[in-house]
Amino acid sequence: MPSPASQNVTQLLHAWANGAETARDELIPLVYDTLHRIARRRLREEREAHTLEPTALVNEAYLKLVEQEVSWQSRAHFFGVAARLMREILIDYARARQRHKRGGEWQRISLTAADNIVQEQAVDLLLLDTALQRLAAFDSRKSHVVELRFFGGLTLEETAAVLNLSTPTIEREWRTARAWLQTELASA
Prior knowledge:
The protein has one domain. The protein has helices at 4-17, 21-44, 54-67, 75-101, 125-138, 140-151, 156-163, 167-186; strands spanning 108-110, 122-124. 34% of the residues are buried. It is built from eight helices and two strands, in the order ααααββαααα. Strands 1-2 form a two-stranded antiparallel sheet. The protein is mainly α.
């Protein structure tokens, strides 16, 4: 059963989708801490000299979120969209840095951090994005699961809610996608 806070977020999302800008303003304080936590987790896995701060990532994601014309379905759906936007921001940031440095330092990020697996494998964020695009070309659902789990920090249950699938299905998709990505990234 959804928590009262989750239900309130969903109600505000519906009101916002129906044009109530005051609902958007009420929503932000309710979701800001979660967005900031997701951003901190993503940036903690970046290289040490990374200059993008979690607050800046949240602010950029927020600016993109308010531009979205989405029929919000739930709290999990909102965080799924936020995850995609944070991924786009981080990829754009990595590409800009790479252009600036002409192939400068790799940006390291843990592929398995979302599962708290002891053996971490660091990957280049741009290589991960390329691999996710290849995965999406033949299995968009697995790619979306990775995006929601890895970039959005959603749990298996939240990912299942966003994609309207069962948790065991998401668990299988996550496991398979992660194995495929690890193989792809190892050969890159």
